[in-house]
Specification:
8-stranded mixed β-sheet, 29 strands, alpha+beta, disordered N terminus
Amino acid sequence: MPNAPTGRNAPTVLIAGAGPTGLTLACELARTGVSFRLIEAAPDPQPGSRGKGIQPRTLEVFDDLGIVDRVLAHGRTAMPIRSTDADGQVTLTGVETVSVPPDIPYPDSLVTPEWRIEEALRLRLAELGGSPEFDTVLDSFKQSDEGVSAVVIKNGEAETVTARWLVGCDGGHSVVRKQAGIAFEGETREEVRMIVADVEVDGLDRSAWHMWRHDDGLLNLCPLPSTGVFQYQAAIAPGQDPGLGLANLQAILERRTGRTDIRLHEPAWSSLWRANIRLADRYRKGHVFLAGDAAHIHSPAGGQGMNTGIQDSHNLGWKLAAVVNGASPALLDSYEAERRPVAAGVLVLSNARLKETLEQKGIPTQRDARTSQLGIGYRDSALARDDRDDRDETAVLRAGDRAPDATKLTTVEGDCRLFDLTRGGHFTLLCFGNTPAVDAAPSGLSTLRVVGRPTGPGDLADTEGHLADAYGAAEHTLVLIRPDGYVALISDAGDVSAVSDHLAAIS
């Protein structure tokens, strides 16, 4: 359990920040039995829709954590976008039917308020026996060879918490990052601002995301599923009024839409966003790690920031648990090596999307493997090994890639998809064809044998070949899948000793 064996003041991990990033990490640790404390300086959960776009890869993370149904129930996928140009021309996009390929269970992004994501994660954490501590401030910390000693203030009283690791998930103004002395390189562009607010709206249907392009700048009203409000977004150029009051929001709306029949109510939440684009110089310093906005902050264009933070935690969580259970501490070096390049790429993507947004006075609607984050991978990681020929351009999958899903599978218990069997944060070994030495595979992982007809536990029939196609399987292929859903190793030669050696090195 998260708060017992080592005691309240000596958890294995101290997490600062209970937003989506910190909550995801807490869930990862809780389900593997690693003790932690999750502290949050704010007195209550943060209000507001804020980041409202959940990408397909993040939905896969939520599937693994067991909350995807809860998240989907409070959101909407493939929301149509109704764009109105300055000349009055209206374009409706996003109404096309999207096919669901067998290797991608969630092909569309999801619109849902960020507070709904936090709610779902808190509920899952409670099911796992944990909870965030609100109104609890990280005042200071110091490191030793053994870990971190932190001073935490709660209810006006200071207490000392000793932990093996401290993880800063405490946002762009991260206390952890600042006190660790980690540089946060980048820029703040004061000339690029946007009003963001949650408002009830009269006179506008909720069937689509509404966008208006105007010479003054873009204006968006996006209906937030499972609520009665819209998210209001208005670009604010230099010299324009950045006021967050109802009168200014209404005036901007009327000027940019040319309509007076749309009436706003008093905002339930509002904020003035400024383009602050930065990347931490490093993600680790001794026993201190950074994740989420504490490590990288982006333009909201493209809907990448929150998703990247959640996936940071998905990557770090299993590695912390593995080291607690005896893996080499060197495993933790792979966190920065894998995740910092991802954030650097996201900065490039979000900056390009921001530029396009400002030039077109509208949010780009094109989607691809970069924006969906399904294309993220770690082929250059020290944790990725395979015996496939680097010159073979027909290899559909390499070690380090996202492990694809597959449908139309059958076990002795019935029909399923691959993600039903890999869910839960454990290593999985896929064994294709006749591999007599498979029984020599190490214990402590889930082994799935692809057979013609399942006769026992672990047997799996690939009835329509979707699994073999997705993994480019040969007669003796072995595939080791990491707890975070990426391919650790591929051996087309069926080398079980390679699996054993690699698993011993990373688990």
